[in-house]
Structure formats: structure tokens, C-alpha cells
Amino acid sequence: MTAQESTITPGMFITLEGIEGAGKSSAIPVLAAFCEAQGLSVERTREPGGGHLGEALRSIFLNPELALDVEAELLLLYAGRRDHWLNRIQPALTDGKIVLCDRYEDSTYAYQSGGRGFPQERIAELARWAGITRAPDLTFWFDVSPELGAARIRARRPDRLEQEQTPFFTKARAVFAQRRAAEPQRIIRIDASAPMDQVHAALEQALAPRLRKHFS
């Protein structure tokens, strides 16, 4: 897949990003319903996961009983992401669908570079090697403090990443902010500390003009 080939698909690739407890997953059905109300077809997916290989790797990646170093994390992520792109995301975009993906490349930079301290240039090299050259058309960054995010997930059994401590998520949040500053046209910050109905209204307000422009 070349960079040129990755830009000619008629669909729209939308990702949702943020630290744990930001509210991304609960927003996916809301965005899907909003898009479908405009007569558009939607493919909902997630990372890690999104395909047979990705879902199998997800169970390894998030297993709280396993100790993985950052290199192992990245190799798992990009094996799954390549399969996800080739067999799920790209075909849906070629069919003209909107792909709504819970996490993608930005989370890798935030968690494995920000949280773990792995060099960003090496992540970029691995992404190129894996053929991940297509950036999302639009990314919603659900911005929330690590403390509030932790409070929201306290009631459930945490997975391996959710067990990380506040400094990890503080550094991850900083990388999300850096990437947003570098790509303000692609990445829209959503105040995820607001009540859910306000968050969902902000998402729809931001998405509507992008849909009109992309599918006009």
C-alpha cells in the first residue's frame, strides 16, 4: 500500500482517542447513529482488535497476568494493525463507509512513547514497515484528567493498561496534546470531563460540517 493509494478511498476514517476512562467507547454508538441518520453506512471497530488476528492479540495485549515490555507491545500492536487495516478498515473505506475506530496510531504514540518512553521515530519506522501510511481523516481526542479517568474505571476489573499509575497517563495525555498541536485540522479536542450529553452534543456539532464536506 503506497501513500498515494491510501488517499483515494471514498469513505471516511474517524478515530476516537484518549486515556482510560475518557468515555470513547460509549460515544461510538452515538456517533454511529448520527452518521446513519444522514444516510451513511458505518463500520464500527476498535484497537487492539478489529479482526480475527487483532482480537486474538488483544486478549494477550490486555491480559493483566502477562508482563510485556514495550517492544513486545509494539510488535503485537502492529501485527494486529496491519491485519486490521488490510482486512477491515481499507475494504470498508473502499466501499464508501465511515469507519469509527476506538483507538489507533495516536494511542500508540501516547502510550508506548509517552507512557513507556519509547522513541517516536522508531514507532514511525515500525508503522512504515507494517504499511500503516493512511492517517485518519478526523480524530476526536477525549481529553480528561488521569484522576477523573481512574475514578470512572474504578468499578470494573482493570486490564493490563488500566492498571498503570497516574504518571503513565499524565505523560500519555501530554503526547495526545502534542499531536493535537501538530495536527489541529485532524485532531479535535473534546472536553471529556463534561456531562455525557454535552460531550455527545459537541461531537455531533463538530462532525456535521466534516461529513458535509467529505461526502459532498
UniProtKB/TrEMBL annotation:
<comment type="function">
    <text>Phosphorylation of dTMP to form dTDP in both de novo and salvage pathways of dTTP synthesis.</text>
</comment>
<dbReference type="GO" id="GO:0004798">
    <property type="term" value="F:dTMP kinase activity"/>
</dbReference>
<feature type="domain" description="Thymidylate kinase-like">
    <location>
        <begin position="16"/>
        <end position="201"/>
    </location>
</feature>
<keyword id="KW-0418">Kinase</keyword>
<keyword id="KW-0067">ATP-binding</keyword>
<protein>
    <recommendedName>
        <fullName>Thymidylate kinase</fullName>
        <ecNumber>2.7.4.9</ecNumber>
    </recommendedName>
</protein>
<dbReference type="GO" id="GO:0006235">
    <property type="term" value="P:dTTP biosynthetic process"/>
</dbReference>
<dbReference type="InterPro" id="IPR018094">
    <property type="entry name" value="Thymidylate_kinase"/>
</dbReference>
<dbReference type="GO" id="GO:0005524">
    <property type="term" value="F:ATP binding"/>
</dbReference>
<feature type="binding site">
    <location>
        <begin position="18"/>
        <end position="25"/>
    </location>
    <ligand>
        <name>ATP</name>
    </ligand>
</feature>
<keyword id="KW-0808">Transferase</keyword>
<keyword id="KW-0545">Nucleotide biosynthesis</keyword>
<dbReference type="Pfam" id="PF02223">
    <property type="entry name" value="Thymidylate_kin"/>
</dbReference>
<dbReference type="GO" id="GO:0006227">
    <property type="term" value="P:dUDP biosynthetic process"/>
</dbReference>
<dbReference type="InterPro" id="IPR027417">
    <property type="entry name" value="P-loop_NTPase"/>
</dbReference>
<keyword id="KW-0547">Nucleotide-binding</keyword>
<dbReference type="InterPro" id="IPR039430">
    <property type="entry name" value="Thymidylate_kin-like_dom"/>
</dbReference>
<dbReference type="InterPro" id="IPR018095">
    <property type="entry name" value="Thymidylate_kin_CS"/>
</dbReference>
<dbReference type="GO" id="GO:0005829">
    <property type="term" value="C:cytosol"/>
</dbReference>
<dbReference type="GO" id="GO:0006233">
    <property type="term" value="P:dTDP biosynthetic process"/>
</dbReference>
<comment type="similarity">
    <text>Belongs to the thymidylate kinase family.</text>
</comment>
